[in-house]
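Saturday, quiet lab. Running sequence design on the structure tokens for the scaffold JK sent over.
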């Protein structure tokens, strides 16, 4: 079976890595949009058109499920994709892990892009899933873009800025952008000891496996990893090699759990559906 993952940039790497770890026999199709990236500041119609075009290309290449590992794209256009492709091809979106963080009884901060932080989508998510707990919203200008470019210095500066604006009483940080797990070790280094990070990548991967038309049964094989860049066949960009999961996917081998959870202080995954 083939699963397609769509994002403008490297935000799809963590979910793709979890799929590779959990079901290495799957073929993965990674659809990125360097010509249109970043999607965050773009209009709704632009994001919808790019996402729909990528999904149509994925189906033409025999994808049996479509994953949107991007919070911006999920809130902007997931309903359009589902109307177009379901029930024949399941479409799985991404939701920041506010619910499991709140269920753990923690004091929460949500790190997200400027657009997501200001969105009614995130406000509704917090109202619905935070169980009445106060939630600090921390915008992280420039962090996703720095990660996309593999710019370690710029990412470090953005992380320092966000950590400095995160109240000390918050003992859990929800990563509300799918790019941020790629720099989870650096984020943890800037936060007080014992802070737990929550992200949705593993939960989205597990939900994808549940939604596949046939169960995945390990058979000792390792599937392929194909890449499309703004509609054209290509390779993972050089910036992906700045991250362990990017290097593992580029090598088209299996992905270890240690590659995906490099820090023991990250919170264990709790299922979150979208």
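Result came back. Writing it out in full:
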């Amino acid at each position: 079976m083939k699963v397609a993952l769509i994002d403008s940039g490297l935000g799809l790497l963590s979910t793709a890595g979890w799929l590779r770890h959990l079901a290495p026999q799957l073929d993965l199709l990674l659809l990125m949009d360097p010509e249109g990236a970043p999607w965050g500041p773009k209009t709704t119609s632009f994001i919808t058109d790019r996402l729909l075009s990528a999904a149509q290309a994925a189906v033409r290449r025999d994808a049996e499920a479509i994953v949107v590992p991007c919070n911006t794209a999920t809130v902007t256009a997931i309903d359009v994709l589902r109307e177009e492709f379901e029930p024949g091809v399941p479409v799985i979106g991404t939701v920041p892990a506010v619910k499991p963080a709140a269920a753990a009884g923690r004091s929460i901060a949500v790190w997200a892009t400027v657009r997501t932080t200001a969105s009614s989508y995130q406000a509704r998510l917090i109202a619905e899933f935070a169980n009445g707990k106060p939630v600090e919203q921390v915008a992280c200008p420039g962090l996703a873009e720095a990660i996309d470019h593999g710019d370690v210095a710029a990412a470090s500066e953005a992380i320092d800025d966000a950590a400095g604006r995160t109240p000390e009483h918050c003992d859990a940080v929800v990563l509300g952008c799918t790019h941020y797990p790629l720099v989870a070790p650096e984020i943890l280094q800037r936060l007080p000891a014992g802070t737990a990070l929550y992200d949705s990548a593993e939960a989205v991967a597990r939900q994808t496996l549940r939604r596949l038309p046939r169960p995945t049964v390990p058979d000792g094989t390792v599937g392929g990893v194909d890449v499309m860049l703004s509609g054209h066949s290509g390779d993972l960009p050089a910036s992906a090699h700045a991250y362990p999961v990017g290097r593992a996917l580029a090598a088209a081998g299996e992905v270890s759990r240690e590659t995906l959870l490099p820090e023991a202080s990250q919170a264990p995954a709790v299922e979150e559906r979208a």
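Notes for JK: The first helix runs from residue 13 to 22. Strands lie at 2-6, 27-32, 65-67, 91-92, 108-112, 135-139, 172-175, 196-198, 225-229, 232-234. Ask whether to fix the surface positions before the next round.
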